[in-house]
Amino acid sequence: MPKKRSGGGLSPMQQAAKFLGVSVLAGAVMAGIALPAAGALGLAAKGSVKGFDEIPADLKSPQLSQRTTILDSQGKQIATVYSRDRTVVDLKDISPYMQKAIVAIEDSRFYKHGAVDLKGVLRALNKNAQEGGVAQGASTLTQQLVKNYFIEEAGDDPTKVAEATQQTLGRKIRELKYAIQIEDKLGKKKILENYLNITFFGEQAYGVEAASQRYFSKHAKDLNLQESALLAGIVQSPSRYDPVNDEAEATKRRNIVLQRMAELGDISQQEADRAKRAPLGLHTSRPKNGCITAVRGAGFFCDYVRQVILTDPVFGKTKEARAKLWNRGGLTVRTTLDPQAQESVQDSVKDHVYRSDAVATAATIVEPGTGKILAMGQSRPYGVNVNNGETTINLSVDQDMGGGAGYQPGSTFKPIVAAAAVEGGKSPAQEYSSPYEMAYPSPVTACDGKVWRNDPRRPEKLKNENDSERGPYGMAEATAKSVNTYYVQLISDIGICPVVDMAKKMGVARADGRKIVQAPSIALGTQEMSPLTMASAYAAFASRGTYCTPVAIESVTQKAGSRQKSLPVPKSTCSRAMSEKTADTISTLLKGVVEDGTGQEAGLGSRPSAGKTGTTDERFAAWFVGYTPNMAGAVWVGDPQHKRKMTNITIGGVPHDKVYGGEVPGPIWRDMMSGALEGRPAPDFHLVDLPDDSHDEDDQKKGDRGATDDHNGDTPGRATGGLIGGLTNGGTADGGPTAGALGGSFPTPTFSLPENVIQGQGDGGIGGIGGNGGTGGNGHGGRRH
Predict the structure, then answer these.
(1) CA distance 477 to 432
(2) Region annotation Disordered: residue ranges (predicted)?
(3) Which of 170, 271, 665, 719 could form a disulfide with 635 if both were Cys (CB 3.0 to 4.6 A apart)?
């Protein structure tokens, strides 16, 4: 007659177990609780039966936490991460010696008893009564497996772990009933397999495969006799018998296991004696966990992937659910990281900026038309040792994804203004007087019918690099030379709102999550952005007007038993940010920047490229953002703390009086893109014929000074103009203009702002829109060029 399952009547085995629960469980010998046997039996008879009956019948085996493997786009491993280092293996992939050793030392009657070993219980009762404490336990492997299930379910929650291991009769009763159920459903071989995969072997190793790798650097199926005995002996007390820290104690315990195997007939006495004489033979491997183990400098990209899984609702509706998915592991995450591009980024970063330099660099490459992040790196390596130049702050991404508050992009924002103008109908031949010096035009329309006004009592002014730079200019020449007054006149003409709208369509947002301030100074790049944001925005130009949200994950599979199941992943959302004609016009303008303007040092030779330089006021940051039709990349150089100005500074072993966007970030961009694109197609842009905006003025009047970097975003010059709103009476734009000194390509600024108005140090404030004042500063205190 077949046995009945739990909930449908008790089988003889279950009835016997129930009897044990009433009569001997209180002795607690099943897990070795130190209670004298004599007084415990009566205690158990006072209600254990009811508690036993009321325990839910079904125990679901928990999904064991395992390591997660992160791969690049080619399927090569980037890093392994885990909450618990475990690799689940089938019983056939575990050495027979290991199987026999664990049974011999933990439950020698495993194949002869059911969920509870009655002889073992009586033997332990007798022994413990003689000793007056716990000399011997009686938990079967099945009961130990149940206990480990509870611990696994508790995860890293200390309260739940305490509940799972508390020495109480209630837990023992529950453990016993579930052991009966498991014994009935799984069978001996599966119980042994599960036990060997779940149990803790010390040194951060969970399960026999991880333990075998940790102590012997081999697979569990290859363990020999003495190695198996050593691992089996560790289980009882991983800290006491740790062979790494106490070889003598571990050896003694190993030999006990070997002798027990001989007594049971698993091996001969001669085999046991020979194995006892053998050295431990450790060949340890250090735990390899976390993004710090990432290859090719991909630690920050690895951390970005982690952030995506922890924050994107596609991986779970709640924060807790997503964290559980990540910590449980067992995932294989195939990412978008291109190994060739990543290696090129890291090589270029290391060549140009040293980890010990006073400033850092961060670089990102994305694929136009897909949003795929192809590479992400920085000069300061991933890690927690700040004294060694390490950091866990990802300088390439926004604050909510593990980055900082961002960096003002300077003139790399100007193409967004140009795109808004052209999309709105402005011709690239549009000329403005573009004087050497001017006040911000006022009033200027903003969004929602609001108006920005300059303060008539203290009007904010701006200047170009030097007084030879005088208009009129058209868009092409103004872009190549990065003429500040041209772009301020342009945004004042079309209004602030079209620029804010275009930025939104191109995914351009502040790295700290705050709204972009509506002021004409945004044309000069005063709002803090991240390199990933800027690279993704320029990718919209490369893809002829289509913006795609950045993505880092191609696919995720999760191990479920012996199967791999696919999980949903975030997808890039692509949308049209501008017409193809507008994007082609901007590409034509920015191709001129690389060929004849401030970005010549970033050129890729015969491969078509386009881009824009940027250098902020006080030289706290310098940029180059550029693209080809098949890759877009952004490079930022600066002090993440916004304290070190890049004047009289050595970067990458090269001294600089002043740092410009084309001079330091430009070559980094050139080298990283050259390597990333090597061997790949070199398509050309869809260029447009730009209207002739030249004039008959002589070269001196036009400021024909060649390819020189500008300081308000690119042009080195003397900082001047009004400070941010809140520092002026009525509020002005949160960025200021620049002026230039006569003579030379890179004149020396003769005016600098006080330290307390630099980002994050001043009280800035945002003035009102309309009325007596305009939109105030960016709230960070400080004006950047």
Answers:
(1) 11
(2) 450-473, 674-785
(3) 665
Q: Cα–Cα distances in Å, from 72 out to 79, 122, 333, 568?
A: 9, 57, 8, 18
As a residue count, the chain comes to 785
Read off the pLDDT of residues 249-300 as tens digits, 9 standing for 90 and up. 999 999 999 999 999 999 999 999 999 999 999 999 977 788 988 999 999 9
pLDDT of res. 561:
66
3-state secondary structure of 10: coil
Both structure tokens of 694:
């030249």
Q: Which residue has the tokens 């105030």?
A: 776
Give the residue among 721, 724, 723, 756 at the shortest CA–CA distance from 738.
721
Task: Tell me the pLDDT tens digit for each residue of 672-710.
Answer: 999 999 999 999 999 999 886 544 444 444 444 334 444
Phi and psi (nearest 5°) for 718? -90, 125
Residues 337, 338, 341, 343: is their CA dihedral positive or negative?
Answer: positive
| Residue 352 CB partners (closer than 8 Å, separation 6+) | 361, 651, 652, 664, 667, 668, 671
- The HSE-up count of residue 222 (CA atoms within 13 Å, CB side) is 9
3-class SS of residue 687: coil
Amino acid making up residue 392 = T
Under 8 Å between Cβ of 745 and 714: no
Q: What is the largest CA-CA distance in the chain?
A: 113
Q: What is the DSSP string of 406-470?
A: -B--GGGGHHHHHHHHHHTT--TT--B---SEEEPPS-EE-GGG-EE---SSS--EEE-SSTT--
Q: At what angle do helices 141-154 and 158-165 cross, to 10 degrees?
A: 160
DSSP-derived 3-state class of residue 106: helix
Q: Residue 739 forms beta bridges with which residues?
A: 718
- Residue 565 DSSP SS3: strand
DSSP 473: B
User: How many helices and strands, by DSSP H and E, does the chain display?
Assistant: 24, 20
In contact, 280 and 243? CB cutoff 8 Å: yes
Read out DSSP for 122-145? HHHHHHHHHHTS-S-----HHHHH
- Count of other CB atoms within 10 angstroms of residue 388: 11
Number of other CB atoms surrounding residue 637 within 10 Å: 31
User: How far apart, in Å, do the first and last CA atoms of the chain sit?
Assistant: 88
3-state SS, residue 85 = strand
Virtual CA dihedral for 29, 33, 34, 40, nearest 10 degrees?
-60
Q: Are 661 and 709 in contact (CB under 8 A)?
A: yes
The first and second tokens of residue 768, run together, are 């009102």
